[in-house]
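Appendix B, example 12.
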Amino acid sequence: MRTTPGDSCVFVIFGGTGDLMRKKLLPSLFRMEQSGALSKDCTILGVARDRTLTDAQYRDWANKALGEVGLSPSDPDWCGKCVHYQPVDTSSEEDFRALAARIEALEGKNAGGNRILYLALPPQAFEGTIEALGKAGLNKSKGWTRLVVEKPFGRDLESAQKLNALVHTYFDESQVYRIDHYLGKETVQNLLAFRFGNALFESAWNRDHVKSVQISVAEQTSIGSRAGYYENTGALRDMVQNHLTQLLTLTAMEVPAAFAADSIRFEKVKVLRSVAPIGKDAVVFGQYSPGRVDRKKLPGYLDEPNVAKGSRTETFVAMRLEIQNWRWQGVPFYLRTGKSMPRRSTRIVIDFRKPPVALFRDLGRGPHRNILAINLQPDQGFDLSFEVKSPGDRFSLRTERMQFRYPEESDSGWDGYETLLLEILRGDQTLFVHADETEASWRLYAPLLRRRSAPYLYPAGSWGPEAANKLMEGTGGDWTT
């Protein structure tokens, strides 16, 4: 897939030797260059604390990183031409002055004065780095300057507000790109096209026709060696506050005035402000315990390396939300996420109401509800179930399914990061999270953070604790798996 390239710039990545750079950012930038989406004048500058690395050694590291994910430059000197390295201690003003001089030198060659400052750093390093960038004057340039911040943006409402205030001290909101890689997925973006480009579905996208909505993000992996991060985060902060909430707002939002960043963000914030306070009985926290799948033993959370003895950190959250507006009054929204589950799956399920008449009551099987499943991973696409007459003389019903799969239509190999990086280069903030969204989201979940109860245990390799099923009681439905 080839596309119009974004503007040329110096792409400065803090955390230039970290996992995110090695596994995602560098491969994504390389694939963009190969497809023509990255300007030939773009320069990549990795920034990290290691003072022993030279440019040549860093390029060797970059070539090895590309090889680890099966990528090989058609130009053997690709890294030599565009990849550079700069050591920086984020507590050193002198290092940031040296960084500013290095960026200006690279801009002077070919980049036109544009720069992207990407914070691929642990959250605790955000504040010091942002302040140092501002004091060094790196928030401005001859062209444009854009700041990219990875999730999580804050760990509660107070810290998110404090971080937003610091960002806005040095950067205008139009310069800030809070990144959530879920928003770069083709299916997430196509949700807008599917809803608002098809009158058939948009006219039925409301309380009159929809019985319930489920949004699930199931992860097959456990926390592994990430206890240092996860013990201080948990599933509510790690997944619900950002990924699932973004999917919720895109599913439930009203028709925006225009397909533009400000219009879409305005409607997303309206959804968050319309969610009723979440009751204690509407949330279930869980933690995986030892389990077994296909004779293979799976460890429990408390058995993972560096997890505190008796930890109450949740690895599973399920909740029921109510959106109190004209479109969704009375329609339950169910959110669920968990680690160490049977398989990896991210999907939005729209469960439509049954026909309001008993026309087929004498057939032994009435019509099932129509269900629209929007699959985000691993098989991106759409499934729609509908009722038809079974072939044969006897009149009876059966459920059929129509489906669409993105991998069958495109072999681009792109994931969410390529899409989002290109949008940053183009200056389009539609797929990024606004300051108001982060604070509205934290405000919604703040009471849950304060009153988290001891998690229910569920065997690793299962779909979560039995208590989560009780959230569905009285609805006539079940969690879709």
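The mean pLDDT is 88. The first helix runs from residue 19 to 35.
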